[in-house]
Amino acid sequence: MAVDTLLERITDQANRPDPYPLYAELREAGVARQTDGSYLVGTYYDIVSLFHDPRLSSDRRNRAAPYRGLEAEEPEQMLPFIRLDDPEHHRLRSLATRPFGPPHSPDRIDSMRGEIAAITEELLASFHGRTRIDIVDDFAYPLPVTVICRLLGVPREDEPVFREWSGAIIDSVDIRPGEDPTERQRAGIQARAQMGRYLADLADQRRGRPGDDMLSAFVNDPDPAGALTHEELAATAVLLLVAGHETTVNLITNGVLTLLRHRDQLDRLRREPDLMPGAVEELLRYEPPVHMLQRTPLAHVDVAGTTIPKGVPVVLVLASGSRDPKRFRDPDRFDPARQDNRHLGFGSGIHICYGAPLARVEAQIALSALLPHLSTATLAEDPPPYRHSAVLRGPRHLPIEL
Ligand code: HEM
Fold first, then answer.
1. Ligand 1 atom with the shortest distance to the CA of 293
2. Residue 115 predicted with pLDDT over 90
3. Does the keyword Secreted apply (predicted)?
């Protein structure tokens, strides 16, 4: 089949349950130019080298005119740092890290372990007496939502308020070749503005009256070097709230699905609980929540014998790179004890996932606590129904019989 339709086939909802044969086709093709003009890259070493190449921009305003959507017109101060390049990206990421990780808050995530375990236990208690549950709605979604709400200082009961905004934002970053993205982008911009106002208002209420949450820390940092402007705070808080749960839900759900498909490994993890951190890394390689990311070359860039022109979007298919047989031995095998597992699940380079330490802790605690419930459980539907997004891929529901 023609490689120039690979992106269409990869993003086709019908292929969501198993895009991996298409990724093998992509790696075979090397760099593949698509009918919409964009380029696809799916081999591990090419993706890593592009992630570390400063000529590859995360700022969509650098796209050439035909590829520039509504989002390219957005004012700089509204953009979250995931969509900016250095030095602006570095400045904002460093400020956002002050209340989250080293060097200012080295224990922040570790100190949440007890709380994460308590939230997990509470959710598991709700399984009692039930014979059928939906892993997504009953467990994998509420857990990271509750955690990120606590961390940021967002009232948990406001979830119905921000759920719709979050959905619109996720939709706006999806890749759907052949579809006019204007409406999705308009809805995404509007949702980010509304969520930003909501979060900035919450932060304002804590000015001078700080709690132990990150919004409080953002508006009460005594060091003037730690100050975010009102717009920067709004854009950063939106990024953290959305990125903080929309991905982790897929990691936990993909984890349950994979373990129920590999019962020998499930039993092994029960016998050898110390394997869990490695199992989570293997899940990030084998069934990652983020399948692809986009970049824009600031100059003509040569990749594996193909010149990608300046301004033309490049799609880096991380989930393909993490299954590249030139990098991983027996890549289609799920092996929780795999050594040498430098997967691309959290990206690489300057934008490597900021929340990775939290995501790891959440997934390790959640899956460890679930294991005893899974030993007699069965999948009610395999494959399960998937969320629409091809970029953030994961089941919409995962019904299991207990
Ligand atoms: C399993 C869960 C997660 C996965 C698979 C994941 C994956 C990723 C990936 C692949 C990137 C790179 C984006 C790029 O290069 O353009 C990224 C960036 C980011 N992630 Fe995560 N993430 C997860 C959880 C989290 C959590 C829990 C948070 C927040 C607490 C978070 C916050 C961020 C932020 C702020 C960025 C932007 C970093 C930057 O631009 O420098 N993520 N994530």
1. 16
2. yes
3. no
